[in-house]
Design goal:
Elements lengths: L8 H37 L3 H16 L3 E7 L6 E8 L4 E4 L3
Antiparallel strand pairs: 1-2, 2-3
């Protein structure tokens, strides 16, 4: 869609570009909100911690456009970090989790 903001071609072109960028950003943010809502609903009903970790990492990577992510937990006596799951797209690496 193109709007006629100005009789000056260059100004009109620039303003239409800004409108298009803002529209695209708004649509992307709406998709993020919808995905976060779906994640929240899923997390509230899921009881398998490995599936929850998978969901958190997959959506976190997608949401932030990250290449990799890792989850660690604290052991029972709170003295060490314990590896749980890692995804790395560049290295084609998936360890831990359910997949």
């Amino acid at each position: 869609m193109s709007y006629n903001f100005s009789s000056n071609y260059q100004i009109n072109k620039m303003l239409n570009s800004v409108v298009e960028s803002i529209t695209n950003l708004a649509e992307e943010q709406l998709l993020h909100i919808q995905r976060l809502t779906r994640i929240g609903e899923s997390l509230s009903s899921e009881t398998d911690i490995d599936k929850i970790f998978d969901m958190i990492l997959e959506e976190g990577i997608s949401f932030t456009r990250a290449d990799a992510a890792t989850i660690y937990t604290v052991n029972e006596d709170a003295t060490k970090l314990q590896f749980e799951i890692v995804y790395n797209a560049t290295l084609n690496l998936r360890k831990g989790g359910t997949r």
